[in-house]
Write a structure and sequence with these properties.
Elements: E1 2-3, E2 6-9, E3 12-15, E4 21-26, E5 31-37, H1 41-60, H2 63-79, H3 81-92, H4 96-120, E6 124-127, E7 130-136, E8 139-143, H5 149-163, E9 166-170, H6 177-188, E10 196-198, H7 203-211, E11 218-222, H8 225-237, E12 241-245, E13 251-254, H9 260-272, E14 284-288, H10 292-303, H11 318-333, E15 337-340, E16 356-359, H12 366-369, E17 376-382, H13 385-392, E18 401-404, H14 408-415, E19 424-425, E20 443-444, H15 449-454, E21 457-463
Parallel strand pairs: 1-5, 8-9, 8-11, 9-10, 11-12, 13-14, 13-18, 14-17, 16-17, 18-19
Antiparallel strand pairs: 2-3, 4-5, 6-7, 7-21, 12-20, 15-16
């Protein structure tokens, strides 16, 4: 077991202000694998002060030089990709192949994109007789979740640094080890002291102190809608900007004429990825009533291939395991039919849940309305396209989704009617430059690509 006792503040590792620690548990076997400091308000204050002191110099650094440092950071992340994947597997429980391909691989693509954007983005533009400047917003307080621990760090820190902002990161307490690796890579990349700072700690202590700190100009948070509302309230009291990527209950709409077997198979894989711990997962599969029975059979058969401990990992902790099992039991109590999986415990250690598929689900059921955040799929029938739109848009969320049809034009026409921030058409590929973010209670603002960079900029116009 590794015992860490320092935070990365002002370009060096320094002891935490207090002696409290957080245990990091491997969710696959429930063993404690490390401890990290439980940061206090004093640690957050030291980090914010360092970030404020470093802000003028970093903001004045030419974008090309910031791009060079980001390229160096990308290089260090690339060199340590195997270590990153192994670390995430240990603290999150993700199967190693998924950790290599997604947890380590996607942040490499995103970090490379911001190194390039820092060189090409129009930080100045001419509009009539005005010169419009896009300047860094200031000190960013980044609060990241445990489900994609490195991706969410990179998706916030990389555009903030490209914009000329300085950053204080408070990672999730369940997955702080890869955040420490990221800080080491920042240091090795030659990014000046104070430009990036790391404080590990608990959300109600370190997270709240960061969100409410007078020295923070923008809070970027990814996590639950409930916590996002709290952060929004704290920031609003200080007229402080926020970027919030929150919950989701995304619909996977399969229209008549689509390749049903492919749409169901890809849809099941999407929900099972990362043990269902994905905010944008297509957890509601909507199928025309004429094809509903066949789709349910296909989904049940597909889920049978996801064996706990092999193709699907554990949930992050015992609390999350209990929460997801409770949703499954609630679905049964409300009349939904389990066609695969169920609430029964998985033998052996680890916070595993049986991958579960529900049929006979109605739109008002809890399992069709609330974010479960586990390997649970609900399959709902619809009568016609208007009915499908009503069901798809009938939650408080609007983060992502998918549409399958006989051709792309038909699918795209339907997608335009969805109240959601991102829609995959007939299995469209992930694009690290496309904006990602939600409608309604799924959040405020966008991540990734130039839209993600713009979140960390403010605008000034000079009239001549």
């Amino acid at each position: 077991m590794k015992q860490h006792d320092a935070m990365y503040i002002d370009g060096s590792w320094r002891p935490a202000a207090g002696g409290d620690t957080i245990e990091v548990v491997n969710p696959a076997d429930e063993r404690v694998i490390a401890t990290v400091p439980a940061g206090s308000a004093a640690d957050v204050d030291a980090a914010v002060r360092a970030a404020r002191a470093a802000l003028p110099g970093w903001a004045a650094t030419p974008p090309e030089e910031r791009a060079d440092r980001l390229a160096a950071l990308h290089g260090r992340l690339t060199e340590r990709a195997e270590e990153i994947a192994a670390t995430i597997t240990a603290e999150l429980g993700s199967p190693l192949a998924f950790s290599k391909a997604v947890h380590a691989g996607v942040p490499l693509a995103v970090s490379a994109s911001y190194a390039e954007l820092a060189r090409t983005y129009a930080f100045e533009e001419k509009i009539g007789n005005s010169t419009v400047l896009h300047e860094p917003v200031g000190v960013v307080g980044a609060i990241t979740p445990w489900n994609y621990p490195l991706h969410q760090i990179v998706a916030k820190a990389a555009p903030a640094l490209a914009a000329g902002c300085t950053v204080v990161l408070k990672p999730a307490e369940d997955t702080p080890l890869v955040a420490r690796l990221f800080a080491e890579c920042v240091d090795e990349a030659g990014i000046p002291g104070g430009v990036f700072n790391l404080v590990t700690g608990l959300g109600p202590v370190a997270g709240q102190a960061l969100a409410g700190h007078d020295g923070v100009d923008l809070v970027s948070f990814t996590g639950s809608t409930a916590v996002g509302k709290r952060i929004g309230a704290l920031a609003g009291a200080a007229v402080k900007r926020v970027a919030l990527e929150l919950g989701g209950k995304s619909a996977n709409v399969i229209l008549p004429g689509a390749d049903l077997a492919k749409a169901v198979g890809v849809g099941v894989a999407n929900v099972m990825a990362n043990s269902g711990q994905t905010c944008s997962a297509w957890t509601r599969m909507l199928v025309h009533q004429d094809h509903y029975a066949e789709a349910v059979e296909l989904a049940a058969a597909a889920v049978a291939k996801y064996v706990p401990g092999e193709r699907v990992g554990p949930l992050v902790n015992a609390r999350q395991q209990s929460r997801v099992r409770g949703y499954i039991e609630q679905g049964i109590a409300q009349g939904a039919r389990v066609v695969a999986g169920g609430p029964e415990a998985v033998e052996g250690p680890g916070y595993y849940i049986r991958p579960t598929v529900f049929a006979d689900v109605t739109p008002e059921m809890t399992i069709a309305q609330e974010e479960i955040f586990g390997p649970v799929l609900t399959v709902l029938p619809y009568e016609d396209e208007d009915d499908a739109v009503r069901i798809a848009n009938g939650t408080v969320y609007g983060l992502a989704g998918a549409v399958w049809a006989g051709d792309d034009a038909e699918a795209a026409a339907f997608a335009r009617r969805l109240d959601t921030g991102q829609v995959d058409i007939n299995g469209g590929r992930f694009n690290p430059l496309a904006p990602f973010g939600g409608y309604k209670q799924s959040g405020v603002g966008r991540e990734l690509g130039p839209h993600g960079l713009a979140e960390y900029l403010q605008t000034k116009s000079l009239q001549f």
